[in-house]
Amino acid sequence: MTAQLTGRVAVVTGGGSGIGRATALRLAVDGSFVVVNDLDTERAQETTELITRDGGKAETCAGDVTDSTLVDTLVDQTMAQHGRLDVFHSNAGTGLAHGELTSITNQGWRAEVELNLNSMFYCVRAALRVMSAAGGGSIICTSSAAALGAVPGTGPYGAAKAAILQLVRSAAVEYGGTGVRVNAVIPGAVKTPAFQHYIGSDERLAAYERQIPLGRACVPEDIAAAVAWLASDESACVTGTTLVVDGGLTAKRAEPVIE
Ligand SMILES: NC(=O)c1ccc[n+]([C@@H]2O[C@H](COP(=O)([O-])OP(=O)(O)OC[C@H]3O[C@@H](n4cnc5c(N)ncnc54)[C@H](O)[C@@H]3O)[C@@H](O)[C@H]2O)c1
Q: In terms of pTM, does the model score above 0.90?
């Protein structure tokens, strides 16, 4: 245990899988009490059990973060039960509306924005309310490398993930005076269930990894380590910014290579 976060209380959304689960486990190892949220109650409960089995402290608060009432309840219940909220990792999300832009329906666009942007706003707003009143806290939103460069067929997702970066800046600027810090983490390719589904085969994964300067996709624990740092006092002077964790993927430009 690194004890960086002893006595702190953290909420992680989408904590039942992938990056969210790895972050919940890491924040618990670092000493936090972790409130694990996920749409999937069973998966959230599994994460809570993984934490408590290893001697950490956690509880489950399942629900859909596209419902702003649920998000407010998540924060209010955490305050009622623990009296504080120090860290909020707003992480739940996934690509929904796939295809070139002219094929995207209004409904598909709205669903993408609802899950990947509006839910982040609900979470940031709810966390800001209690953290600013308490005089501090750290909010971390999960964006994506899709916010920095376009991959054909993922336009709605990229637009929503890019808007998160400006939401983070606005929140950091407006609430910096209260002691609350707000940052975004930008994962590249991360081996999670959602990514495995997207990538499909070992052959496609190998082709992708050949394009990454460090030669590999990230694992969820790589992102969790960045979130844990942003959550801790080690990053006390860091706000309104983005931390890219992608093995160098977005640093690279296309080059003329004949395979
Ligand atoms: N895996 C990657 O390569 C990658 C890259 C860039 C960004 N991201 C982002 O990281 C985040 C986590 O992705 P992941 O790869 O770990 O995915 P994942 O599918 O493994 O986990 C996401 C979790 O979020 C939950 N969830 C989905 N909708 C929800 C909702 N409305 N309310 C509450 N929970 C909900 C799911 O049930 C799931 O357990 C997402 O925001 C994703 O866009 C992932």
A: yes
